[in-house]
Every structure is written in C-alpha cells, then in structure tokens.
Hints:
By secondary structure, this protein is mainly α. The protein contains 18 helices and nine strands. It has helices at about 10-20, 40-45, 50-60, 65-75, 105-130, 145-190, 195-260, 270-310, 315-320, 325-340, 360-365, 370-375, 390-400, 410-425, 425-440, 450-455, 465-485, 495-505; strands at about 30-35, 35-40, 80-85, 90, 345, 350-355, 355, 485, 490. The strands form four sheets. Strands 5-6-7 form a three-stranded antiparallel β-sheet. Helix 7 (about 195-260) runs antiparallel to helix 8 and helix 15 crosses helix 17. The protein starts with 11 loop residues before the first helix and ends in a 26-residue tail after the last helix.
Amino acid sequence: xxxxxxxxxxxxxxRFLKREYAxxxxxxxxxxxxxxxxxxxxxYIRSSLEAGEAKKKFVRDYxxxxxxxxxxxxxAGLQPRKxxxxxxxxxxxxxxxxxxxxxxxxxxxIMRSAYRDYRRAAAYMQKLNxxxxxxxxxxxxxxxxIENMEDVxxxxxWEKAKDxxxxxxxFMAKGAKSAYNGAKILLQRADKAHRIRIGADRxxxxxxxxxxGAALTTLTLTGGLxxxxxxxxxxxEKAKDxxxxxxxxxxxAREMKAAVMPEVIKPVEGQRKVQAKKKVVSEKRIAVSxxxxxxxxxxxxxxxxxxxxxxxxxxxxxRAEYGLDDEKFQRFMGVVFKHEGGYxxxxxxYPTQMGIxxxxxxxxxxNNKKLAEELDFPTAGNIKNLNKEQCELIYxxxxxxxxxxxxxxxxxxxxxxxxxxxxxxxxxxxxxxANGIYEARGRKxxxxxxKIVELANGIAGKxxxxxxxxxxxxxxRIDFINKHHKRGGxxxxxxxxxxxxxxxxxxKFVATLQQDNNLRLAxxxxxxx
Length: 529
C-alpha cells in the first residue's frame, strides 16, 4: 500500500474519503487496482489489526459483486464459469455466462462495475451523513451494504417528499390566490418600471411554486391511490382463491353424488331384486354423504388453521418441526424480548419489529418464500404486522440454529454470543466476536461458526478460562460500540441503547460446572412465550 494520495482525482468522492482519515488524524492509504489508484476507506484500516488484513478485507468487499455471482451459480446448480486475465482469475457474471464476449471485455466490465460500486458506497455514505442519518459512520463497501444505504437514503427522500407535497398542497389552497392578488396590487400601485418588473417576477415565482406543488401533490395522491388499488386487488385475489377452493370441493361432492345416484328404478320382476337395489342405492348415498362431510371437515380444519396463523399462532407441527418450544431457546428468547421493544421506525435506522429489521425479514422471504407464504408472513414493507411467534421462527432459523447457539456447552457464553448476533449486523457481530477471541485466546480473525464453538467448548471444564473468555467478549463488544458510535465526544442516536444492553452482561458469568441438571441459569430464568 502507498501512503501518497496526491495523485488521486480531486472530486467529491475522494475528498470525502480523505476527510474520513482527517477526522482521525491519519494519512489516507492508497492502493492500485487495474492501474487505477483508489483510497482504502478508513473503516478497513481502523477495524483491522494489521495492514495486510485491511487490504485483504477491502479487496474482498471491492469485488463483492463476484461473490454474489458465485452464489447465483450455486443456486442454479451450475459450475461458475471462470476466466484468467492479466494474471488474475475472475468469475464471469451470471447474466453473461453464455455470452460470446472476449475475455478482455468481460474482465473490463467486472473492473468497471467494481469501481462504480466503490464510488457509490462513498457517495451514499456522504449523502447519509449530510442528511444527518449516517450517524457519522465510516464508508464500508460490500454490495449488500451499498444496497442497504441506498434503501435508507431513498426512504429518507420519500419522507421528505411527502412533507413537501403536503406543504405545497396547503400553498395551493391558500397561497396561490394570495400571491395573485399581491402581484396584482403591486402592478396597480407601480409608479416606476422596475416596480412593475419586480411585481411581475414575484408573480411568476408564485405561479411556478403553485405548478410544482400541484405536480408533487398529484404524484403523491396518484402513488397512494395506486398502492391502495394494488392492496385491494391482492385482497380480491385471496378471496377469489378461497372461494374457488370451496367451490371446487362442493363441485367434487356433487359430481360424486351424481355418479352414484340411481336412475329411476323401473319395476322389475320380483320384490327381492327391488329391495336389493334399494339397499345398494342407500349404501352409496350414505358413502357419498360421508365423503362430502369429510371434504367439508377438511376445508374447515384448513380454514381454522389459517385463521390461527393470522391471529399470531403458528401451527403446532411447525413449532415442533423447527424446535420453537426448545426449553433453552425459549429462555434465551425471554432475554431477547426483554431487550427488544415493539415496532420502531426512525429516520436513522431500518423499520424494526421486536428486534427483526426489514432487511432481515426481506432475506427470510428470499430464502424461505414457500414457508413465509404458508404462514402468512407480512412483507418487509409491512413489518409492523409481524407477530411474536413469527419473530421466534426467524430468530430460531436465522440466528439460533444458523450460528449453532445450542451447541455451546456454557450457557453464559451461548447467551452472550446470541445477543451479540441479534443486536448487531452480521459483519459487526463477526468483528466483535473475532476481536474477543483474539484478546482471550490469541487467535486472529476467527469467524467460522464451527471454530468458535470448538474454542468455547474446549475450555468448558476450566471455569477460570471460561470466565476470561466471557469477560473479554463483553469488553470487545463495549470497545467496539465506543469506537464506532462515539467520536469526538458526539454520540450516535443508538449509542446509549447499545451501551445499556451490552452493560447488562457484565458480571453475569456462570461456569459450565455450576450449571444445574436442568441447565437453568438463575439470572436468565425467563420464558419468551
């Protein structure tokens, strides 16, 4: 890495990246990618223990679009198509896997996309800070992070646009007429040419505001009507599907009856034959009636099950399948729900319901679309409607099971790591845990879940070592919050909440050898349901 940033372009993006370094009295670190000098964002230098590690993390995030293409190949069950160019190996973008482009053109496109994402990250971070919703954070690359910043910024612009539309609407109702009358009076009283010009200019400005206000108000109303129309159409489709299912069941029952209904019984010789035929008809009618009743009962049970889901209760088979009633998980969720409030929607963060952010819910839909539809999960835009049991399922699948929290022998360590994963973003949580392990065990950059479980369980029989590990994990969390959420004496909006929550784990360690037979920790004996 070079420390000379003088030969960089003097544009807004690079000036902003230099200012981030200047805030910490540091010299900008520069490296060259594809014969193009770029500043390594200050975030990577400050969050890494050594220069080599910072460079490695930066390059990985710089080419994060490549990793997304690898995931798309994997989801499609295909082997990634690779090219070698100028000594480097690249994955051909998924959308261009069947392209006849030359390798040099494909590599050039990859480089241009990566550089464009790099500049987008800095540009969005600058915009968020200028709007007062960036919390003074440092620029971090990664395609997911860039898209998240874009979502936050667009939501901020939408809120501001709604406020402006309302103001212009009021102006149209009262201000337009007043502006016209004022301009008219100015023109009538004018005794000099420049007074006439000034009055005309004011009138034109007022007219322009009225036109802009009308346009914005119309746009807002049109968007609202469109959203309302889409919601009505969706509700109609659901009602239609339900009606079609009921109608189909009734039609099946009628067809079954028609298939076995006897024709008019003609007189036949012998009373015995007539009675035998009547008996057969009677039995068939009974069978049809029982079948129709079974169909109605089945429909009723499914309807009741769906109604129960809408009322906030997951089916028992789902709770059993995903282990939602696991005793340890429920105690841990009791702690999480004590920390996490209900619905929150602030301008400087994503909408959140009981600790589940709109991004987490969006990813759950992406990875579990069929399950989310079956259990009537709301979309990320309607996260306020997410109920408690649905939150439990997300916590169980995407946090408790994914990070193997139940495999830790020591419950104090397990609960602490679970809370860190829940309370912070994936990257932040991994960094905090890696820092704690480095301080406690001297292992650098440990991020793999199986390795973390192995290190923690390897000291389960040594209470002093366990407590040393636990205390350093608590300290790493608090240090990270102080480092990234408090700069120059100014605190971010969520600083106090994060610190209060992290501080509650101080002095709460209980050794594995002291855990009783039921694996209950007295300090965390709580139920989530």
